[in-house]
Amino acid sequence: MKIAYLVNTYPRASHTFIRREIHALERIGFSVHRFAMRSDRRSLRDPEDKAEDERTEHVLERGRVVLILHAMLWYLTHPLRALRALRLALQMGRRARTTNKHLIYLAEAAWLARRCRELEIRHVHAHFGTNSATVACLCHALGGPRWSFTVHGPEEFDAPRALSLGSKIARAAFTVAVSSFGRSQLWRWARFDDRGRIKVVHCGIEPQRFPAPAPLPEKLRLVAVGRFSEQKGFSLLIEAVARAARQHPGLRLTLVGDGELRGEIEAMIEQQTLRRHITLTGWLDEAGVRAELRQAQALILPSFAEGLPMVVMEAMAAGRPVIATSIAGLPELVTPETGWLVPAGDAEALASAIGALAETPLPRLTEMGLAGRARVLARHDIDRETTKLALLIRGPS
Predict the structure, then answer these.
(1) How remote is the C-alpha of 341 from its chain's centroid?
(2) Neighbour-count burial for 288-298, b at 16+ CB within 10 Å, e otherwise
(3) What are the E-state strand segments in the chain?
(4) Is the fold of 2-204+381-394 the same as that of 209-379?
(5) What's the pTM value of the predicted model, to 2 decimals?
(6) Nearest 5°: phi and psi at 117?
(7) Could you give the count of Cα atoms lying within 13 Å of 1 in the half-sphere of its Cβ?
(8) DSSP type of residue 11
(9) How far is CA 75 from CA 36, 62, 67, 133, 341, in A?
């Protein structure tokens, strides 16, 4: 079956889960054409991401004039569908107060519809309920193929009305949530009759990339991974490390990632005199992240908002306990047997969890890591989860 994946920006360092899902679909016989509006190639470090970038058709690289001309041609040859799609685009645009943007999305959708017809694509699956799902929805309204989308959160849950989530759920063949929590949030915006088409399919890991875990180090070393943005809570983590380091001067934290708040984070590290406790690495490829996990006693995730983070799955697969905030889908993965959950926004609770980790004997930490590994391998094997998605894409037999 020939299908397409549609993402706004692809590939990205933080979107390796999409790449894994595509590859898993290809392993079971799907032919997957990659569409993205734009590329993030300047920031790519992982050779696999670079290879994926070369396989992806980036729509906006065609140029505005080409897109408009092809859109006009599609509208002229499909006038009734064009009128319906225009009405839908205007409705969505009014909700979001971005009518002009939605007219651009309509032109992108016309390009996508034409390319899907040329390539004989039977289904489009979009990742994220934002503009990629908007384009897929408008593409279908223009006469394009059946479509679906995966919602991750938290961005989609911050603006469900502006994103027309309820309308998208109603028009999609099915909608995927990556956690039960995510599904519950989508239920809030879906009509009762549409709820049955909202399915949970977890993002997954490739178990073969996580052989038997390396022994836990004896030294108190933590690693945190993510974009330096408000929702990740790294400023709160620095405050928690400052508190914990008073009782545990050997504490070390490695921050893997980058983003718009890097300057603020570096300033906080200086103000708290934590340079000997905290190391910033920038973005690392998958091998680099796995190497940092091997050298850490635990992963720490201080987020204020999340979906279901891949890095938690990867840490658990590597046999590492997890300290995380008790938000979104995280309690579905992190349990008392595998780590510590703390209230979001509470630096003292985060510092206390670091202290509890420091005082836990190494054999017990090893048991927690192994329990986490067993849990994530049972729940998040990419091939098993992708098989669920494949059945949905194929549709009723």
Answers:
(1) 21
(2) ebbebbbebbb
(3) 2-9, 31-38, 56-58, 123-127, 146-151, 174-177, 198-200, 221-225, 252-256, 278-282, 298-301, 322-325, 339-342
(4) yes
(5) 0.92
(6) -65, -45
(7) 16
(8) S
(9) 22, 19, 12, 20, 53
**SS3 at position 8:** strand
CATH number listed for the domain at residues 209-379: 3.40.50.2000
Distance separating alpha carbons of residues 4 and 22, to the nearest angstrom = 10
What are the tens digits of pLDDT across the range 347-392? 999 999 999 999 999 999 999 999 999 999 999 999 999 999 999 9
- Full pLDDT tens readout for the chain, 397 residues: 999 999 999 999 888 899 999 999 999 999 999 999 999 998 888 899 999 999 999 999 999 899 999 999 999 999 999 999 999 999 999 999 999 999 999 999 999 999 999 999 999 999 999 999 999 999 999 999 999 999 999 999 999 999 999 999 999 999 999 999 999 999 999 999 999 999 999 999 999 999 899 999 999 999 999 999 999 999 999 999 999 999 999 999 999 999 999 999 999 999 999 999 999 999 888 889 999 999 999 999 999 999 899 999 999 999 999 999 999 999 999 999 999 999 999 999 999 999 999 999 999 999 999 999 999 999 999 999 999 999 999 998 5
Query: Distance (Å, rounded) from C-alpha 337 to C-alpha 13?
Result: 30
As given in the structure block, the two tokens for residue 328 are 């979104």
Q: Give which of 230, 247, 215 is closest to 370, Cα–Cα.
A: 215
User: CB burial class (10 A; 0-12, 13-18, 19+) of residue 255?
Assistant: buried
Contact between 169 and 147 under an 8 Å Cβ cutoff? The reply is no
Residue with tokens 């039960």: 180
Phi, psi torsion values for 123, nearest 5 degrees: -155, 140
Rounded CA separation 124/136 (Å) = 7
DSSP-derived secondary structure letter, 205: B
Dihedral of the CA atoms 292, 294, 295, 296 (nearest 10)?
A: 90
Q: What does the domain layout of the chain look like in residue ranges?
A: 2-204+381-394, 209-379
φ, ψ (nearest 5 deg) of residue 309: -65, 135
3-class secondary structure per residue, 232-283: HCHHHHHHHHHHHHHHCCCCEEEEECCCCCHHHHHHHHHHCCCCCCEEEEEC
Taking alpha carbons only, the member of 373, 360, 210, 380 closest to residue 291 is 210
Domain 2-204+381-394: CATH class, spelled out: alpha beta
